[in-house]
Structure formats: structure tokens, C-alpha cells
Amino acid sequence: MSLNKLLASSAPSATVIIRLMVGLVFLSEGLQKFLFVHELGVGRLTKMGVPAPEVMAPFVGCCEILCGTLLCIGLLTRLATLPLFGVMIGAFIFSRIPEFAKVGFWAGLHGGRTDYSMWMGLLFLLIVGAGPVSLDKRLLERRDKRT
User: Fold this and answer.
1) Between helices 53-73 and 77-91, what is the axis angle to 10°?
2) CA dihedral 16, 116, 94, 82 (to 10 degrees)
3) Which letter does DSSP use for residue 74 in this model?
4) How far is residue 10 from each of residues 14, 61, 136, 139, measured CA to CA in Å?
5) Nearest to residue 128, comparing CAs of 26, 42, 5, 1?
6) Residue 9 phi, psi dihedral angles, 5° rounding
7) pLDDT at res. 146
8) Is 91 exposed, middle or buried (0-12, 13-18, 19+ CB in 10 A)?
9) Measured in Å, how far apart are the chain's first and last C-alpha atoms?
10) CA-CA distance, 90 to 98, in Å (whole number)?
């Protein structure tokens, strides 16, 4: 994929709202993995059965912080969604599936409502890009001026 296709977006200005919603949730969750290590970081991933939680918790936390920040500022937006999809797949495997098995379908849906919202927000941003209120737009404009 070319840089122009990666950065280009015909999305409306209001896309910034979705970027901030999704980005701030991931940024916050990533920070909390370091602030509350036992409850939300290594300790939580250990309880969930994630392999090598002492490696995975900081790795996931860094991905969430970095990619969440990129979404908030609208820089490499489409690219930033990809690692976050990976984080969400891991959360689904290690958290959602066991929860569905434990509490049933409807309670599992209720417990996963934030996850589904994040999936849809990421999918939206992957499809439409950052929108005009973004660093992606500025980079594209700067690149167009040079050519």
C-alpha cells in the first residue's frame, strides 16, 4: 500500500470523535497496565492464562499506549489500528471466550460491550482513515506540496 493510500481519507471532520474515543480508551488501558501491575497488568494476564505474562503485559501496554496516542493525534491511523486488532484478538481469546463459557451468552455480551465498541471503532478507522483533523492530513498536504 502506498503512503498516499495509507494517509488519504475522505472521512468527515467528526471522525476525530471516534479517533479520540478509541484512542483514549487504549491509551488509558495501556497506562493502567503499568500503574496497576497486579490488578491490570502482569497479575491480570497471569490469572487469564496468557503465556509469558511478564513479557506480554508490558508489550501489550506499550502497544496500547503508542497506538492509542497515534489514533488520538491522527498519525498513521490506519497502520495504528492493526496492532490494536491483535490486542483485541488476544483479549477475546483469553477473556471473552472463557467469560461466555462461565456466565453464558447474554452476560458475556454485556461484559464485552466495550470490546465490541472498540472493534467497531477500529474497523471504522481502518476503512475511512483519520479524517481532515489529523496529522495524516497534514503529512499528505505537505507531501503534495513537494510534488
Assistant:
1) 140
2) -40
3) T
4) 11, 31, 12, 15
5) 5
6) -155, 135
7) 84
8) buried
9) 19
10) 12
Task: Please identify which residue in the block is written with the cell numbers 493510500.
Answer: 5
Q: Which residues of the chain have pLDDT under 70?
A: 1
pTM (predicted TM-score): 0.93
Specify the amino acid at residue 139: L
| Number of residues that this document lists for the chain | 147
As given in the structure block, the three cell numbers for residue 28 are: 488509558
Contacts of 136 (CB under 8 A, 6+ apart): 6, 7, 9, 74, 75, 76, 77, 129, 130
25's enclosing H/E stretch is helix 15-35
pLDDT at 1: 66
Q: What are the sequence ranges of the domains in the chain?
A: 14-140
Query: How far, in Å, CA of 143 to CA of 9, rounded?
Result: 15
Residue 126 is given by DSSP the state H
Q: HSE (CB half, 13 Å, CA atoms) of 125?
A: 35
Cell of 116: 465490541
Lookup: cell for 70: 497515534
What gap in Å lies between CA 3 and CA 49, rounded to an integer?
Answer: 39
Can you tell me the distance from the alpha carbon of 105 to that of 111, in angstroms, rounded to the nearest whole number? 10
